[in-house]
Amino acid sequence: MRKTAGVLGVLVGLALAIVPPAADDLRAQNRDLKAQFFSRYLNRPAPPFTLKDVSGKVARLADYRGKVVLLNFWFSTCFPCRQETPDLVTLHNVHHEKGLMILGVNTDRLVMPEDDGAMRRKFIDTYKIPYPVLIADWEVYKAYGQAPVQPISFLIDRSGKIVEIFWGAYPGPAFDRAVRPHLAASPPPPARPSSAAGASK
User: Fold this and answer.
1) How far apart are CA 22 and CA 26, in angstroms?
2) pLDDT of residue 191
């Protein structure tokens, strides 16, 4: 009996040594995913998009060129999204007149299509969201890496470049610290029209 127990103990020990704990594997995979995601998007031009807001109005990312844009992906039953939304409302109220544009990109239609927008409407009413809420489609979802965590927010500077990624929910002061330097920066000069080919000098 003792011999059998000893053999089992050795086998269990070997198994634990060979197979790392699942939690450690998951943490490592998450670190790799996050690093790859940041490498793909950070300090690169934000992917363009054209979406409709909850009232059916068309919104294009290009419409906000020259502003600082915080693009926030969220869905209605996401508890961390509920935690950070009041801070985003405050951020909008404090900085909107200085050139900050918060765009909420709601993914309910993709992740919970059976709800048909009921939870989204309740969410917007509950938090009295003052900034535009856009309805995500598969094109924008894929363009932004299928939002591997939600919420996830992309801070886009006045030139249209992604300068910071908020992976998960963040408190208001973190957003505030991030946006202030970019709001202080001057807007980029308007693009000059190219000279017509063959124009006389």
Assistant:
1) 6
2) 56
Identify whether the C-beta of residue 91 lies closer than 8 Å to the C-beta of residue 70.
Answer: yes
Instruction: With beta carbons less than 8 A apart as the criterion, state whether 70 and 179 touch.
Output: yes
Tokens of 27: 């943490």
Can you tell me the distance from the alpha carbon of 75 to that of 77, in angstroms, rounded to the nearest whole number? 6
84 phi/psi in degrees, rounded to 5:
-90, -15
Tell me if 77 sits within 8 A of 150, measured CB to CB.
no
Does residue 181 have a cis peptide bond before it, meaning omega lies within 30 degrees of 0?
no
Q: pLDDT for 77-132, tens place per residue?
A: 999 999 999 999 999 999 999 999 999 999 999 999 999 999 999 999 999 999 99
pLDDT of 54-77, one tens digit each?
999 999 999 999 999 999 999 999
